[in-house]
What we know:
Number of helices: 6
CATH class: Mainly Alpha
Radius of gyration: 17 Å
Oligomer: single chain
CATH superfamily: CDP-alcohol phosphotransferase transmembrane (TM) domain
CATH architecture: Up-down Bundle
Number of strands: 0
Strand content: under 5%
CATH topology: Four Helix Bundle (Hemerythrin (Met), subunit A)
Amino acid sequence: MVTSLPNLLTISRILAIPLIVGTFYIDGTPIRWVACGLFIAAAITDFFDGYFARRRNSVSSLGRFLDPIADKLLVSAVLLMLTAFDRVSQVSVLPAVVILLREILVSGLREYLAELRIGMPVSRLAKWKTGIQMTALPTLLVGSAAPAWLPAQMLGEVLLWGAAVLTIVTGWDYLRAGLKHMQEDAS
């Protein structure tokens, strides 16, 4: 049901994306903090949509479909905008690419395995990756607008690299699991 609280939270995450993207076209310190706040609010909905769906026993097909898409759209949009507006160093474009490629890989694997009726649960390490990534991105959204005592740009880029390393590890884990099922399916 579209109007269930978990689905509304997921949809709100998707609706926040154009607002966050729009902040890139407005100059000024306050707007960077607005982007950060919007991103954090959207990221928090990722926790609560699942929490309420399980707690209220209202897990829906729409929610299972939209939730991972909303996450990938949010992260991808912010990574692309940060790179397009030169808000990450050239070397930090690499972890952004790694993160985007892994998301595509895992989405493809999940789609393939779904045809075989095999689920691919999120690993604990992948949750850590997401946590680090969801800390890096709002930090980078603030970037140079942070107070002088807070090296937000550097901190955000270090966290982005950390998320990319975990992205490679978890992507490899998912790929190995997927290949195992593909070999079994070919037999």
